Automatic annotation (TrEMBL):
Residues 1-228 form the Reverse transcriptase domain. Pfam families: ALKBH8_N, RVT_1. One of its GO terms (molecular function) is methyltransferase activity. The lineage of its organism: Eukaryota, Metazoa, Chordata, Craniata, Vertebrata. It comes from the Eukaryota. This is Reverse transcriptase domain-containing protein. InterPro entries: AlkB_hom8_N (IPR015095), DNA/RNA_pol_sf (IPR043502), RT_dom (IPR000477).
Amino acid sequence: MKVFERLLKNIISSSIPDTTDPLQFAYRSNRSTEDAIAHVLHTTLSHVDKKQGNYVRMLFVDYSSAFNTIVPCRLFTKLRDLGLNSRLCAWLLDFLTGRTQVVRVGRCFSNSITINTGALQGCVLSPLLYSLYTSDCVATHGSNTIVKFADDTVVLGAISNNDEAAYMDEVKNLASWCQDNHLQLNVSKTKELVVDFRRGQHRDYKPIIINGAPVERVQSFKYLGVHISSDLTWAAHIQVQTKKARQRLYHLRQLRKFRVSPKILRIFYTGAVESILTQNMTSWFGNSCVKDQKALQRVIRTAERCCRIALPPLQDTYTRRCWTRAAQILKDPSHPGNKLFQLLQSGRRFRIFRARTERLKRSFYPQAIRALNTHTHPLTSSIID
């Protein structure tokens, strides 16, 4: 059955237009958590950089049992509107409805019940069907953005001149959309974070009320594995990642005691230590301070002594990943970040961002463009040519 589900998944994916919900970064080729985080940060930094006095409110939305609340008949209508074959839509409707469920404890079985809602747990199709089910959950105001990675949803409100009406209306529309589509908002786990660099002004933000309950405002939030702070510094995130990496160094030392070859030690380092230090690094490393970068580099030096081989500095890894990721985005016209890479008339270099603040200059997209213009890369060379 899993093989058949994978075949159907490929058929559905190939039938959906690339323009469908471009800000859903999950379950799509050439998309990752790194892209979602980079888009959130670039949208935020670009707005704050435009005009002094601008700020951004981020609402990190949490759903209760998102996959279990899908209504198959509503999904059927949405899939048909997206252009899927009517017979395939009918098969999916039949696949998701009329299922029986029992509970087993030892040799005892409960009475069976019929399930007509939700996507199956562990089903290959479930994540894709959920993303299509929420494809019409988009921003209704031009100043707002809704970024999704599966059921991790962020509402970005770009506030200018202290006018929060559009943002408040967006939150209201989201709550209404969830009610219409039978998705339950978990208000207690939904958090808001405000990025505001204004100085000398009284900061009085309107509280967010969803279903009669206030949303808590926090100074830091863990989004897709990255700790985002209200001041967009990365000390807290790097401290957490450094601690995790140092714990993994213990196992590296134990392997060395058993006289494991340097080649095997390097493989273990790459999979267990470097993967922690470089997780989503294109989103945050450029804006990290020198002190935090040195803390990360100390972990690498310790690993070098254990492995007895030279390991690449994080700065080199960051630069390489920036232009590798940029090259992949350039090859994908449907990627939301593709339009940010604009060739100059010479056809050999990309237009550099005009930025007022260092925060924007050192973020992913400006750094990626700078890396493309500075370093020759086989992927980008073939694209430009």
